[in-house]
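UDP-N-acetylenolpyruvoylglucosamine reductase, Virgibacillus indicus. Tokens?
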Amino acid sequence: MKYHHMYEKLTKITPEKNVMVDEPIKKHTYTHLGGIADFLVTPETYEQVQEIVKLANQEEIAFTLLGNGSNLIVKDGGIRGIVMNLQNLKEITANGSVLVAQSGARIIDASREALNKKLSGLEFACGIPGSVGGALYMNAGAYGGEVKDVLTSTKVVNREGKLLTLTAEELDLDYRTSNIPDKGYIVLEATFTLENGKYDEIKEIMDDLTYKRESKQPLEYPSCGSVFKRPPGYFAGKLIQDSNLQGKQIGGAQVSLKHAGFIVNKDEASAEEYINLIHFVQDSVKEKFGVALEREVRIIGEDLDR
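Tokens:
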């Protein structure tokens, strides 16, 4: 088997079913884009996460955390080394007004569990497709709410494989940013402190936000969600719309006709086509309005060898 030495070491840490070799990343991203990962590993415990990080350090092999692939574009050349996905860490528990969610759980599911426990504060997250870990990574938000409003603490693994408990303040959460990427933290769980509320009132807010999302966003096609951050004083979607870019297509990638802030994989696009369309939109808006659109979506991986 290719990479036999590393495969053996990984399967000593986590069961064989959690170690995939030469795995197509497009099967694990919302955009359905991305080449091959040398190893895709899905650990089941915090200890396994720590051991895999330590192994990558010992072997001096590249290590990448994938998250659940919702706010991410992986290039066509794929990712070398070990790619970790925390989809098996998805437990959500509530005790009083405190809700603890593991990083692989969807933030949508955390908001639904809060509703079930009549807890208010996570309603804004009911339409965000990412994982809890990804939500902390980018301080995800929508409809006037964001993670920093309700997060109190988190457990992470650092680059050396050490388990740390940090307060929300120690993450430097700001508009769609945190220090998690710079510090190289792997989020394992998040603790949210919410407020007691009434089930019907919380559900009414979530139903309203879900309707707004479903009626305005192009959920019928694969996409990475909102591509750009909101520029100060403007709305990215409005700038793109006013640049007459809706429907603009490069290969199989298209600026959505339903919401200009989205780029959809309409017809088996390559990552290169998707990224080229992002650059085209940025260049067009800059030329027409003098506004530099900053990407919200992450781009990782390697270009395809020609």
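The chain has three domains: 4-84, 92-202, 218-297.
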